[in-house]
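Hey,

The postdoc asked me to send both predictions to you directly instead of through the lab channel. I've kept everything plain text so nothing gets mangled by the mail client. Protein one:
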Amino acid sequence: MDHTSPFEIAWLDPQLAPVLLGVIILAVIGTTILFCCGIVAYLRRRSTRYLLITIVLGLLVGRSLVGLGTVFGVVPMTVHHLVEHGVDFTIAVLILYAVYRSGPFSGQNAEGDTDSGAALSDSNGD
């Protein structure tokens, strides 16, 4: 790969390169912020459900970085597709597993502590 600029890649229309680059940069920034929020939430809750969601958010960051690497010609298109679709599948599996682990609502989550919404409204007198 000799490409160093998204404006020189054959498969990318030079007029759309700034738009694609802007969208991918915003995706990297946005998913990184969400991933950091996920880490904070996991560190506060320490539950499997929050860990799974944090992993999913981390995969979204990686997915965005692969897209950025593809635009700059660092990641070949074939690798891009393999990684992106593999990450999509992994995200779907992890989200479905988190939902499955949640089970029916009974006022307690899978880890045994009370539902945070109910606990907050009871403790605040709302």
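Protein two:
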Amino acid sequence: MSELQGHCMCGAVTVSMTPARPALGACHCDMCRRWTSSALMTIPAAPGYAALGPVKTYVSSDWAERAFCADCGSALWYRITAPGKMHGQVQMAAGLFDNAGGTKLGLELYIDRKPKGYAFAGEHRQMTEADVMAAFRPAAEEGKS
């Protein structure tokens, strides 16, 4: 896929990235819904993305951080910080890019946490909270409840 260029709501942060896969992801976890007031829609970024401007990060869990524009508050990305095979993986906010970079929905995370008031159409993979934790939980957390 070709490189995407985008920006936050106020234009203070500009981003460039090449999608790792041509598919949108949607996360319905409690944190993403509180952060965006809906599902966080993302595009997986290949290594080498760039962001210029007043970027702030927030450590939102033991294994991830979220980035946002310090001026307007726009969501920028979600990044895995825990050691392991997922370390450094970035999910860029799809709203930064015109027409969400032309991608289609491929995955919904935390489908069992999604509010009943809306649903996304079409065929795509869905993962429950248990599925997500089994797939993405840091190795240090395995075996703990």
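Summary for protein two, as requested: Residues 112 and 128 are 5 Å apart (CA to CA).

Thanks,
C.
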